[in-house]
Amino acid sequence: MDEMEEELKCPVCGSFFREPIILPCSHNICLACARNILVQTPDAASPQSSRASGSGLSDYDYLDLDKMSLYSEADSGYGSYGGFVSAPTTPCQKSPNGVRVFPPAVPQPPAQHHLIGHPGSLPPIPRNSCITCPQCHRSLNLDERGLRGFAKNRVLEGVVDRYQQSKAAALKCQLCEKSPKEATVMCEQCDVFYCDPCRLRCHPPRGPLAKHRLVPPAHGRVSRRTSPRKISTCTEHELENLSMYCVQCKMPVCYQCLEEGKHGTHEVKALGAMWKLHKGQLSQALNILSDRATEAKEFLVQLRNMVQHIQPADGPGRPLLVTSGWGTLKENGVEFEACLVAQCDALIDALNRRKAQLLTRVNKEHEHKLKVRRHFGSSPGDF
């Protein structure tokens, strides 16, 4: 169990994975940790692409290099795979579980101007940014999507949840200064675990705090991960709500993306209007699928009728009659059997072809709906 627990911890923060993302090198890292170790690269020394063919190494070669000693990046300012990492005088940090981690970029001061109703926005991710895997030290470029371009590892997140529930480890208070005590409640509004002394001191049941809901720690840990976010926020500006939709990039954006990012010159529309438009398109696609299903049923009825048309004439000793559009055949029993088998095989082939066509259409419609849902960040029940 202890070995398994180490596999479920982030190599940067040393804690259990929270919102893990999958890097192109197949390693995992927390989304928040990925933002912390982002490095801005100058144009003159931009890192090589993670999929560049000039290095002569495949993804499996990178995985094999995990076990080899690497040259010090602090001496040259370049990572083990040729990517710019940091200044030569900046040493590498070390995570709690012993894995080397490159230092994050120097934090930029927050923007001095904000839109009305959107205060305290975080600075956007620089365009020329890269991230270095803390395990294989492979330098990876970020495209225009930023961290949104990395897929989330839902399976690993579920495994971490189940492991923590099965282990039933005591949750610690988040406000104790020295040795954290065991948490007794969790505030759903504050999203903080409290022990009894800290709850009485920092979260008294009076005033505005009296309306907050306190739940047991185990229930709060589950609801923290399973409860959906009421308002989707921008991945580049965490305090900004998504309110617009970029038609060219086919993705939701916030107001600060329009002011400072590349979407300023793109065509944008209101997010609510685009949601209604895509919802109508999905409903239309479902109606088309329903019509095609009706056509398929009618086609099956026609096939059954064709089979029923193949029948022998009444009475023994009379010639066998086949009326399926190809004329009347007067043959002996062996020839009739061969004809019947051939026609049945033709019907089966037609059914298989029709089945393949319908499955292909259903898969295409399903993939289209998944892409639309990813763009809007909504759940399947919203459509």
TrEMBL record:
Signal peptide: none annotated. Residues 168-217, 229-271 form the B box-type domain. GO terms for cellular component: cytoplasm; cytoskeleton. Gene3D superfamilies: 4.10.830.40, Classic Zinc Finger (3.30.160.60), Zinc/RING finger domain, C3HC4 (zinc finger) (3.30.40.10). SUPFAM superfamilies: B-box zinc-binding domain, RING/U-box. It comes from Hucho hucho. Keywords: Coiled coil, Cytoplasm, Cytoskeleton, Metal-binding, Repeat, Zinc, Zinc-finger. It comes from the Eukaryota. GO terms for molecular function: zinc ion binding. It is found in: Cytoplasm, Cytoskeleton. This is Tripartite motif containing 9. Pfam families: ANCHR-like_BBOX, zf-B_box, zf-RING_UBOX.
